[in-house]
Write a structure and sequence with these properties.
heterodimer, A: alpha+beta, Phosphorylase Kinase, domain 1, Transferase(Phosphotransferase), domain 1, 2 domains, five-stranded antiparallel sheet, three-stranded antiparallel sheet, 33% helix, disordered N terminus, B: 76 residues, alpha+beta, four-stranded antiparallel sheet, globular
Chain lengths: 230, 76
């Protein structure tokens, strides 16, 4: 898919246990003293106030999404490598009991879902431009697809507005790479022969565009011209 | 337990390592890896080390990565 780290070239001076202990301590610190910055059906994201650069996504054992954390990190790595706006990944952890963790960059912003449901209109950056935002989002998705990455879960909770009013895509838990152009990335058959159909990324964006557009229209966004159309 | 550091981490180490020198013996990685720094000499407990040739395609001393905080730079 893309060049992965050759771990043989990295030698940990300390014992493997020590390396893991540092990571485990960070997990425990966030679990004990962190606060929730996002929660979905399959995972929650927490961070520590005194360390704003990084956050921790915890995927619970019972509601584990399709991709385990190593796989999800590969997608974030690949997207970051192609300068696509996603949180930079730091490290992924998979435990023997099926609990997964993903350390990544904290994004200073909020989701389109929170914008509407928590009525965060007043928190939108002055530079926010509705049409430009969605135009950029469509280009990002096109570029993702050029790299054969299909997100497959692009609901409004997985699209963030950052502090500059730009789109950021999160949560690659359902993402896939389409190796053959003849394959349908939105249709998947598991080992038991059960088929899962996903909505296309383009359709999802069209839905989100409508949802957010309706909300902003109600807020008078287009009349007061906060970067939107008149 | 299986742990993997990201390719972006390696890229950040590489970027910082390129600026290491006599006048710059300790370089912190960019966000969100701001709790890590690289150096040629050990300056605390070493997290990992990279072979210079593998990382920056140049013969030289090993590049040591030290972890002050796994969660990035502490807010001031």
């Amino acid at each position: 898919m893309f060049e992965k780290i050759n771990w043989s070239e990295i030698k940990t001076l300390e014992k493997k246990e020590k390396f893991e202990q540092i990571i485990w301590d960070a997990i425990k610190r966030i679990e004990c003293g962190g606060y929730n910055i996002g929660e979905g059906k399959t995972a929650k994201v927490c961070m520590l106030e005194e360390y704003p650069e990084a956050c921790l996504k915890t995927i619970s054992e019972k509601t584990i999404s399709k991709n385990r954390s190593h796989k999800e990190m590969e997608f974030l790595d690949l997207a970051s490598h192609h300068n696509l706006p996603v949180p930079k990944p730091i490290c992924s952890v998979e435990t023997d009991d099926g609990k997964d963790y993903l350390f990544m960059e904290t994004i200073n912003g909020f989701s389109l879902e929170d914008l509407v449901n928590m009525d965060l209109f007043g928190d939108l950056p002055e530079t926010f431009d509705f049409k430009k935002f969605f135009s950029e989002l469509r280009v990002i998705v096109e570029r993702m697809h050029e790299q054969r990455i299909y997100h497959r879960d692009l609901h409004w909770g997985n699209v963030l507005v950052d502090k500059e009013g730009k789109p950021i895509i999160i949560d690659f838990g359902d993402a896939t790479v389409n190796h053959l152009s003849s394959e349908d990335p939105y249709r998947e058959i598991n080992a038991k022969g059960e088929m899962t159909l996903y909505q296309s990324d383009e359709n999802r964006i069209a839905q989100v565009y409508k949802q957010v557009g309706t909300y902003l229209r109600e807020k008078g966004f287009f009349e007061v011209k906060k970067g939107g159309d008149k | 337990m299986s742990v993997k550091m990201s390719e972006q981490f390696r890229e950040a180490v590489k970027k910082a390592a390129l600026t290491l020198g006599e006048t710059n013996p300790k370089v912190y990685l960019e966000k969100p890896f701001g709790g890590f720094f690289v150096s040629f000499e050990a300056q605390g407990e070493v997290f990992t080390t990279f072979k210079s040739l593998d990382l920056i395609e140049k013969e030289g001393k090993d590049i040591l990565v030290t972890c002050e905080s796994f969660l990035g730079k502490k807010a001031s």
